[in-house]
Write a structure and sequence with these properties.
This protein is an alpha/beta fold and about 210 residues long. It has one domain: Class I glutamine amidotransferase (GATase) domain (Rossmann fold, 3-Layer(aba) Sandwich). It contains eight helices and eleven strands. Strand 1, helix 1 and strand 2 form a beta-alpha-beta unit. Helix 1 crosses helix 8.
């Protein structure tokens, strides 16, 4: 099995959350499966991981994502769902800032066209889509009209927005998975509610187990 992973930068405040992404990769690798990382291009605003401030610095999403993938990364434009068994979106605020505008526009969010296409093309082939942490908000925007079920952990403002977008929202503990088998969409809360890295890996492992 080979899983495509969409990255959104490097770091939880403005890109892909490292502990979530690496836990996802490890859960895939421990099963003897393969993964291929993808990322869109384009600049994004850098957020300090010390104090949350922005100083005007900008970096490229694709270049920063390559740090996590150790250089083994392909442009999102190259993604073809027929070549993969599933699509994965780890969390981190990059999903809310770079893949979508949820962090800035809330319920009026948009999703990058290339990201939306990747999700819809996979969904229409009825292939599994998995997401962690805040990344299910991207699925809520794209797949909410189809009535997909997902989780964002416990009651929170993003969960309210996801419902507004048409998604069905389930509340889950850090290591639990919301499994929408009808639509082949699987989500886990990760750092939306988790407090320990061990919970992140257990949740990621449970998430990947849904693909077995």
């Amino acid at each position: 099995m080979t899983i495509a992973i969409i990255l959104s930068g490097c770091g939880n405040r403005d890109g892909s959350e490292l502990q979530e992404t690496l836990s996802l990769m490890l859960a895939i690798d421990r099963r003897g499966w393969q993964y291929q990382c993808f990322a869109p291009d384009g600049d994004y605003s850098v957020v300090s991981h010390l104090d949350g401030s922005e100083n005007g610095e900008r970096r490229d999403i694709f270049t920063e994502s390559a740090r996590i993938a150790r250089g083994n990364i392909r442009p999102l434009a190259d993604y073809r769902p027929n070549d993969y068994d599933a699509l994965a979106l780890p969390g981190g605020m990059g999903a809310a800032r770079n893949l979508s505008t949820f962090a800035f526009h809330g319920a009026n969010m948009t999703v990058r066209p290339d990201v939306e296409k990747a999700i819809l093309d996979t969904f229409q082939l009825h292939k599994p889509i998995i997401a962690m942490c805040i990344a299910p908000m991207v699925l809520a925007k794209v797949l909410g009209p189809y009535g997909v079920s997902l989780t964002l952990g416990q009651p929170c403002p993003p969960a309210d927005v996801a419902r507004h977008l048409g998604a069905k929202v389930e509340y889950c503990k850090p290591t639990e998975v919301c499994a929408d088998r009808e639509h082949c969409v699987y989500t886990t809360p990760a750092y939306m509610v988790a407090t320990r890295i061990s919970e992140i890996f257990e949740g990621a492992d449970n998430l990947v187990r849904c693909l077995e």
